[in-house]
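REQUEST ID: PR-0412
SUBMITTED BY: lab tech R.K.
PRIORITY: routine
TASK: structure prediction, single protein chain
INPUT:
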Amino acid sequence: MVTFSYEHPAKNNVRLIVADTGTGIPAERQSGLFQPFNRLGAEGRAIEGTGIGLALSRRLVELMGGSIGFSSVVGEGSRFWIDVPIYQAPSAEVHAATATGLAQRPSGFSILYIEDNPANVALIRNIVATLDDVQFLEAKDGSTGIAMAKLHRPDLIMLDINLPDLNGYVVMQRLKREPELKATPVLALSAGAMPSDIRRGIEAGFFRYLTKPIDVGKLLNAIDAALSTSGHDDHTSPTTPQESQRAPRA
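STATUS: complete
OUTPUT:
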């Protein structure tokens, strides 16, 4: 049985609770519960999943100024909760910041992610889903990614370095040879985390070189920065009445 409930543990917070009467989580495995891709042994059973849900949930809750917690007893079940602040009316300063673009999140644009690892694609897809009005495109290898970039002309490209057919640097070079894609910002998302890897990526022309496992906050900031510095200011989504509209492509 699964039950949903809520509480008010503090005046300005609300707690959302999901409890079940399942098998529970052994104490020795609980420390790895929020680690990305750690399924706590469930990968040996028929239960589907990638092990990114809780890690992503915690990060999203933290971005909203909240926290997440749990308790579990083997044979009795588990109880998860998130504490989030209750909405407060924005101050005049916040309204002013939004009007000038300082508190805006990009929207109305397209992202192409070139990556062969399904788990990584699932993670980025879920992160991008937190943004408004975004078309998310996927390519499993470099050749397909180049073809899709030419066809769809995305506003932003995210690129893995170790692809099954072409090296990410080769893909980057070929993208920059295309007149219509030359100015498109490209973010490298790579497992290569050595200083030399990062330096090489920046020297190759990547707008940012982000290492895996991906830091959600850094990725969202990189998306904001890439679009705002490449002439995509019209992709922001103001909350003021004078909401900007994206110009249609020719």
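NOTES: The CA atoms of residues 56 and 126 lie 8 Å apart.
REVIEWED BY: pending
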